[in-house]
Structure formats: structure tokens, C-alpha cells
Design goal:
This protein is an all-alpha fold and about 110 residues long. It contains 5 helices and no strands. It is globular.
């Protein structure tokens, strides 16, 4: 994906192809992408270290949502709650770190 449009369409397609309440998940996606746009619009040298971790957090939320959407054991609302709870450790786990292990210094582990 190289554009915001492709990014949004990718996640929207995943939501629409699931057996989930696409209205609720589409609203969640829209909320995240709206915040994403707001943050991108504010990036400056003075606030990069504050804004970038939140951008990474939105990406982690959407990627985690896409991974969990196939598990039908959870309601759509439970799924969103799980995403909102677990997104901060998503990249750490993706890189093979145990949650108790301190990862190497990297921007990717500084998610908010």
C-alpha cells in the first residue's frame, strides 16, 4: 500500500468480507482514520516524538483488528475492546518478544 486511499480500502475490504457487523466496524475504522489524518496534519519537528507513537498505535489497532476479525468466538464489541486493550503490545509480540521482555530501543515499540 502506498496511499492513504489504498490503506483505507484494504481494511474496509477486510471488514466487508467478514461475518461481522460491518456498520460498527466501519464506524471504528472511520474514527481511527480520522484521527490518523488529524495526527498527520500536525506532524512537526517539535512534536514528532509525541505524534508518531500515536500514528503507530492506530496502525497497530487496524492491523490487530484485521487479524482478529476472523475469530467468531467474540462479538464485534468484544473484538474492538480487545484491540483497544492489546494494540500497545502488538508490534512487540509481532517481533517475537515476550510481554515481560524489554525490547531493543526502537520507535516501533513506543506505541501509544
Amino acid at each position: 500500500m502506498t496511499t492513504k486511499k489504498e490503506y483505507k480500502e484494504y481494511f474496509l475490504k477486510k471488514i466487508e468480507s467478514s461475518n461481522r457487523d460491518s456498520e460498527v466496524l466501519s464506524a471504528y475504522l472511520d474514527k481511527q482514520l480520522k484521527r490518523f489524518d488529524e495526527l498527520i496534519g500536525t506532524i512537526a519537528k517539535a512534536n514528532f516524538w509525541i505524534v508518531f507513537p500515536e500514528i503507530l498505535g492506530i496502525d497497530a489497532k487496524l492491523t490487530l483488528l484485521e487479524e482478529l476479525i476472523r475469530f467468531e468466538d467474540f462479538s464485534t464489541e468484544e473484538l474492538i475492546r480487545m484491540v483497544e486493550t492489546d494494540y500497545c503490545t502488538y508490534f512487540k509480540e509481532l517481533c517475537g518478544y515476550d510481554l515481560k521482555t524489554k525490547p531493543k530501543p526502537s520507535l516501533i515499540f513506543n506505541v501509544r
